Amino acid sequence: MAPQSVIWKLDDHTRAKHVILRKYLDAWLPILIREGRSGLLIDGFAGPGEYVGGEIGSPLIMISAYQQHRAASLQRGTVKFLFVELDPKRAAHLRQKLQAHLQYQPLPSTATYEVYTGRFVDAMTSLLASGCRRYDAMFVFIDPFGFSHAPMDVIRNLMACPRCEVLITFMHEEINRFLEADYRTKQQHYDSLFGTTAWQTITLDAPDVQTRQRRLHDLYRQQLLTVAGARYVRSFCMRNSRNTTDYFLFFATKHRRGMKEMKRAMWKVDPTGNFVFSDCTGMGQGFLLHNDDPAILAKEIYDHFRGKRVTVDDIEEFVIADTAFFKYKSSLSLLEEKGKIVVYGSEGRRKGTYSDLTMPVLFS
Ligand SMILES: C[S@@+](CC[C@H](N)C(=O)[O-])C[C@H]1O[C@@H](n2cnc3c(N)ncnc32)[C@H](O)[C@@H]1O
User: In CA terms, which of 9, 42, 258, 334 is 20 to 30 Å from 303?
Assistant: First the structure.
């Protein structure tokens, strides 16, 4: 259940989510905030900024990622942080934490922040009305207690902004609550969440709870692709020590590089006894993001392209969009060694090098 107090205890699954957020921003910031470029980082469900044990919350993680980044180029662009929090006491707590932090580590003149007390939907509506095109890039973290209050049409409008990426948490417990809900009272709410009424058929037709959960998950992903207009959408799930899924993180972007960096962040998170991340996009149990045996991806690539002539770029696109992996060169190398592919590189190309994305590759 969602806590009622202003601050609450940090649990393992939030800690894990924070590691992902930080690692992703470490990669995202220097790519997008550069000379003459401006970025907007939104924490749409910001929380109070700290936990009972003194650990920092997501808004301070975002600010620290920016302040501690070594890339000097960051300060040649501009960045704005927008923190949205509905609960006035939590918003006040967050303001206080930010002020205390920035007193000792001020932001440079190229960075600003705002705490908006109110609903995510209202904050986004006013942002979109005032025009988001003044930003070159946006990152939106959508982290409600449940999976609500972030309608699909708002996500679609955000994704229409220049280079906007969204990271959405989707609590598993909340999906279960959804399955048990009295739909007559929630219909409109769920219609707007999914941006379709198709969830109603799923709840009626699915033979069991697991199938229903999976279909709802797949419908949400599909909606991010077709309604919100994302080109790459994957879901990552965090499993706890009892091997049950705590939550899904959906990441949606129009850019291959964004998805590549998000996967890199996911692959970097070491499993602890308490949690492990999997790619949950496909059916089945989810692929653990630690098994980097190149033979696994080599098989996926081969099965997909068998008998075709494609380019290295086509292969990269497939790997980033449709598999749990982001690195593929050792897998191609393996296929080349086994004679399963022929690479038509320029003269003098060393075997096992694939940096030219235009190189044709013939699969046997
Ligand atoms: C899961 S907590 C956020 C935790 C925070 N992102 C972190 O990682 O440290 C969700 C927060 O969203 C706030 N909230 C609930 N409904 C909201 C809404 N419609 N708009 C904005 N914030 C909301 C809650 O008060 C709560 O503080």
Answer: 258
Distance (angstroms) between ligand 1 centre and the Cα of 167 equals: 14
Q: How confident is the model at residue 280 (pLDDT cuts 50, 70, 90)?
A: confident
* Residue 359 tokens, joined: 């190189």
Write the residue with the smallest CA distance to atom 25 of ligand 1.
87
CA dihedral 154, 13, 234, 223 (to 10 degrees): -30
Residue 206 has pLDDT above 90, yes or no: no
Q: What is the topology classification, in CATH, of domain 12-288?
A: Rossmann fold (3.40.50)
Pocket test for ligand 1, best of 4, 43, 56, 145 (most atoms within 8 A of CB): 145
284 alpha carbon – ligand 1 mean position (Å): 31
Contact 58 CB / ligand 1 (< 6 Å)? yes
**pLDDT of 53 higher than 80:** yes
Q: Is 299 in the pocket of ligand 1 (CB under 6 A)?
A: no
Q: Tell me the three state secondary structure of residue 358.
A: coil
Residue in this structure with the two tokens 């799930």, named with its chain if needed: 237
In the prediction, which pLDDT does 162 show? 92
Q: Is the whole-model pTM more than 0.90?
A: yes
Q: Is the CB of 8 under 6 A from ligand 1?
A: no
Model confidence pLDDT, tens digit, residues 82-103:
999 999 999 999 999 999 999 9
84: Cβ below 6 Å to ligand 1?
Answer: yes
pLDDT score at 266: 86
Q: 122 φ, ψ to 5°?
A: -70, -40
At residue 181, does pLDDT exceed 80? no
Contact 286, 217 (CB under 8 A): no
**CATH, range 294-363:** 1.10.10
Place of tokens 């709410």: 189
